[in-house]
């Protein structure tokens, strides 16, 4: 009797690989990144696809796709995204290129710069809002120029001494 067999069982499970039509990707074909509930990411986070955050992120978040922040998510970061759907807490500035939606459970503590915005009743937004401007237009521009000292003009007329 042999210890090893070469027969394959018909009921054995094989790994599952989703096909392109079944994968969870956005309509642009980019991948979707999910930060699940209970997961904490610290540092700069960048993605070229859609991002769903149900957990916690501290640092910076940047995506060329749609950022979805779940109702129990906590983001303590500056955020740059093409579109944003916020249901949880964001502490940091939001720069959204196209559209931002703040659901009733959203709480944003920071400035919002966006082309179009929908803010549901009950949402909290503590900061400045610039609607009609894209994130790239409002992003601060850094230069290596030093400020020029102001020259103080010398008066053209001098007062005569009183006699």
TrEMBL record:
It comes from the Bacteria. Residues 1-29 are annotated as: Disordered. Residues 12-26 have a biased composition (Low complexity). Belongs to the bactofilin family. This is Cell shape determination protein CcmA.
């Amino acid at each position: 009797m042999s210890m090893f067999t070469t027969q394959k069982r018909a009921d054995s499970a094989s790994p599952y690989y989703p096909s392109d039509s079944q994968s969870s990707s956005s309509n642009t074909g980019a991948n979707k990144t999910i930060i699940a509930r209970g997961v904490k990411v610290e540092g700069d986070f960048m993605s070229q696809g859609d991002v769903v955050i149900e957990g916690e992120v501290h640092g910076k978040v940047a995506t060329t796709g749609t950022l979805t922040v779940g109702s129990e998510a906590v983001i303590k970061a500056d955020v740059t995204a093409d579109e944003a759907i916020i249901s949880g807490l964001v502490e940091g500035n939001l720069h959204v290129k196209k559209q931002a939606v703040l659901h009733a459970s959203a709480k944003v503590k920071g400035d919002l710069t966006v082309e179009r915005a929908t803010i549901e009743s009950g949402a909290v937004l503590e900061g400045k809002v610039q609607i009609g401007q894209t994130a790239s237009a409002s992003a601060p521009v850094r230069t290596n120029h030093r400020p020029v000292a102001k020259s103080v003009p010398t008066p053209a007329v001098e007062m005569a001494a009183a006699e």
